Amino acid sequence: MNSKTVSNLVTVGAGSEAAPVEVDEPSLKRVRPATSDVWNFFRKLGPDKDVVERSECKGCKKVFKAGGKRYGTSTLKQHLDSCTQIKHEDIGQTIAEFQLKMGSLKIDSGVARDMFASYVVAGDKPFNIVDDRRFRNWVKYISPTLKLPSKNTVKADIVKVHKREVAKLKKILVSIPNRICLTSDLWTSSTNEGFICLTAHFVDENWKLQSKILNFCHMSPPHTGFELSSKIFTLLNEWKIDKKIFSITLDNASSNDTCVDHLKSTLDVHGSLLCGGEFFHVCCSVHILNLIVKDRMKICGDVVHKIRDCIKYLRKFESRMVKFKECFQDIEGLEYTTALCLDVPTRWNSLYAMLASAILYKKDFEMYEVKEAGFR
């Protein structure tokens, strides 16, 4: 008999001899309920063949050893930071809702800081929002025990969140079996600084098309095709996807032709292009369409120029727009329902929006010309 078994003498049947029979009494040890918040994201599977408890992540379905004195919940908590199927901001929200249901809300400073960092990023808020007196008073009223981080801490938390998300995305890009398509563009800011953006497009394991910005970083001069190619190849190496590229889409700038030729030859040396790179370069159809529209609009350039000048004249002073709207009273059946807008040179569809808004008020422009001597 082991220590957990009690031997009792039991008489079996009337008049029979007493024989010792082992009867297992139920264990008096109570099983402690799982109280950790981590169990909101894991499902208990019970003991395996090695009599060790197993738990499955509700997001990625990965199985871990967890439970008992030897295997706690530390591994599960570490997995939550790297799980690609569970958004980190959802973790804090779920924990808060669960604790509210239990009637005891415990504020985890780490979760609170991560959620606040996500709020600052998503809402494009300044770091010094935590220094605003009214904001601090409001937070103190909601939770007197919550300690707000400084603006430097908020900045550090955002960098931490970014690194964590980069690690998750890198894990996804490396693990998917299919190829990745790229798009890239180069801008020059008002301060004459160059910036390059590299975006990856791929189909994830759930057959959903994903588009993720890999890099938006400073591009030092010169902005030649060779330098662009070297920069893009360096970024691909950092993401460890240089051997998984299918195509890249660029606009029709002359430097991009040199960039594609050099990048194509570099990737082809490593044997990472399909069909020898026959389908590697894709021209941007939207940019081509933009060039076509701009070229055709030269035919009616004088008319468009006059309409643009008319709208600029009216929008320059509020008093002119007031007088323009007063002209509607003299025209039966015409109302000011759509605001006049100006076009943007880099967006040809904005030219259509400008013409569409102006053509509605053709009669009103004629009436305004009669009443306003300075308008021609």
From TrEMBL:
GO molecular function: DNA binding; zinc ion binding
Pfam entry (one): zf-BED
Alphabetical keyword list: Metal-binding, Transcription, Transcription regulation, Zinc, Zinc-finger
SUPFAM superfamilies: beta-beta-alpha zinc fingers, Hermes dimerisation domain, Ribonuclease H-like
InterPro entries named in the record: RNaseH-like_sf (IPR012337), Znf_BED (IPR003656), ZnF_BED_domain_contain (IPR052035), Znf_C2H2_sf (IPR036236)
Residues of the BED-type domain: 33-95
PANTHER family: ZINC FINGER BED DOMAIN-CONTAINING PROTEIN 4, ZINC FINGER BED DOMAIN-CONTAINING PROTEIN RICESLEEPER 2-LIKE
Identification of the protein by name: BED-type domain-containing protein
Organism whose genome encodes this protein: Arachis hypogaea
